[in-house]
Every structure is written in C-alpha cells, then in structure tokens.
Amino acid sequence: MGTRSRIGIKLTNGNILSAYHHYDGYPQWLGRHLVEHFNTYDEASELIDGGDMSVCYTNQTWGSKALYQHFLQPDGTTRSELIKNEDGSIKYDIVKETPSPQYYSERGENTPPRLDDNLFDYLDNGEEYAYVFENGSWTAYDLHEFDDQEPEVVEIPEGELV
C-alpha cells in the first residue's frame, strides 16, 4: 500500500535535500529501514542522491513479476495462488542479489532530489510522513496529511524489521 513519505538530509546551511518514497512510509517500516540500513551521513546522502523512489530497500526490480501456482479444479476451472517464500513474503521471478532502492530513474523517469530552504518548507510537502537525517540520526514526522493537526515528531520503533 502506498504510504507516501519524503526522506531528507539536513545540509550545513540548513537546506534539506530530499527524495520522495512511495510505499510503506510509516515509521514501523520506512523509519526502521532508514535506521537499520542508512544510518550514516554518507549512506543517507547516497540514498537521496538517487532521487525519488518506489521503495528504499527491496530485492525486486521494475521487471519483477509475482509467481503463481495454478491448480486445476474438478469442474475444469483453474485456481491461482501466489507462491510464497519461507518467510511468508511473495516470491518473484527476478530478484536483486542484494536489496537496494528501487528508483524511478531506473525506469526512465527524471525525478532528481528536491531542495527545500528550511524544515518548514520541507514538511509542507503533501506526504503522510517525513524523515530528516541530522547530527547522525533520523527524526520522523507525522505530517497529519488527513487532519488539521500540525506536523509532529513521532518515534521510530526499535526491534525486528517488519
């Protein structure tokens, strides 16, 4: 499901360089993956430098297709079920050896990072969540896109990645 978010890094002059992130932008998924896999300035910067993305950490490619198993029913019709990996995730025909971002540029789109003058401008972006890497750590914001509340800092949960 698309939970729209933006991933940013605060620059020394106070500007924020960021990229759009489409899927699973809530702190329990994206926040955890940012903390686990992009927890240095260089890693965060490299992630954002790729531009807008579907997802920051996946083994799928734009050409990946879910695999199905087909069953012939007694009445002659067929029933299809997704094939699952041992961990319960969906199995795909093409996978990357190492999980990495799935950038829109990989399918020919021109979606470079966006530069905002300050945190206020950055948080006024229309997504549901925003993340900022600053002083060696990530801060998550719930932007309350669907209600009238102001953006607020929210916790990135610890524990096993979901």
Molecular structure report:
With 162 residues, the chain is an alpha+beta fold. The chain has one domain (2-60, 97-154). Helix content is 15%, strand content 38%. The protein is built from 3 helices and 10 strands. A 6-stranded mixed beta sheet has the order 7-2-1-8-9-10. A two-stranded antiparallel ribbon has the order 3-6. A two-stranded antiparallel sheet has the order 4-5. It is elongated and about 65 Å long. The two termini are 14 Å apart.
Mean of residue pLDDT values: 90
The global form is elongated
- Helical run tally: 3
Intertermini distance:
14 Å
> Unreliable stretches, pLDDT < 50, 5 or more residues?
none
Q: Strand share of the residues?
A: 35-45%
According to DSSP, the number of beta strands is 10
Number of domains: 1
Indicate the structural class: alpha+beta
User: Spatial order of the strands in the main sheet?
Assistant: 7-2-1-8-9-10
Largest sheet: 6 strands, mixed
* Strand/helix succession: EEHHEEEEEHEEE
Q: Fraction of residues in helices?
A: 10-25%
What Rg do the Cα atoms give?
18 Å
